[in-house]
Each structure stands twice: as structure tokens, then as C-alpha cells.
Amino acid sequence: TRLHAGPGVVVSYAIAGLCALLSAFCYTEFAVDMPVAGGAFSYLRVTFGEFAAFLTGANLIMEYVFSNAAVARSFTAYMGTAVGVDAPSKWRIAVPGLPNGFNQVDLVAVGVILLISVCICYRY
């Protein structure tokens, strides 16, 4: 908790900042050595081959899916608070065939994910 953390919070932010700085240095070195447009996938494909690039690309896609799902799920609670519905469970539909705890479909989250996906895929 915040009462027992002490200076650990500041130290953890400093460590995270140092790690981000070192990561930026790595990408800068890659960009100087291999002047191709792209991110981690392109650099790993050139450096380590197709398999390492495939694994990295799959991990990046999985990271995007999980983070977008978490943000969309919390968006229901934010929107519910904004319009005056405090219980986000009122906006979810229960599916009887699934196990308890995993049987609610959040339609607002599904809508947000579909809207963002369409905007990203068809941005031109």
C-alpha cells in the first residue's frame, strides 16, 4: 500500500525510466545500422531471421489484443459513471452455457473494440 511503500515508488519510476532510455538507445543503434522503416519486427527479421521476427510479431499482436480488451472493458465502467449507471453489470449480457465468472458479454466493450479496429484498418 501507499503507506508502506516509502521511497520504493520513486526508485521504481527511476528504474523504469532507465530501462526506457536503454531501450531507446537500442532502437537508435538498430536504426543507424539498418536504415529500414519499421519497428521490432523489421529489426529482428534482419538480425535474427524470420522465426524470431514471427515470434515477436505474434507477441506484439497478443499484447495489443489484451491491452485493448482491458481498456475497452474499463470503458464500460467509465461511460456508466458518466451517464449515471454505476453498476457496469447492468450493461452486460449473461451467457448461460459458459462457466460462472466468464459468462458475461460486455456489449459496450465489444462495440469499442470494433469501432477502434475499423478506424485503424480503414484510416485512409
Automatic annotation (TrEMBL):
Per the record, GO CC terms? plasma membrane
Molecular function GO terms recorded = amino acid transmembrane transporter activity
What protein am I looking at? Amino acid permease/ SLC12A domain-containing protein
InterPro entries to which the protein is assigned, alphabetical: AA/rel_permease1
- Organism superkingdom: Eukaryota
Could you tell me the keywords of this UniProt record? Membrane, Transmembrane, Transmembrane helix
- Name the family: Belongs to the amino acid-polyamine-organocation (APC) superfamily. Cationic amino acid transporter (CAT) (TC 2.A.3.3) family.
Classify the main location: membrane
**Where exactly are the transmembrane stretches of this chain?**
12-32, 44-66
Where in the cell does this protein reside? Answer: Membrane
What is the membrane topology listed in the Swiss-Prot or TrEMBL record? Multi-pass membrane protein
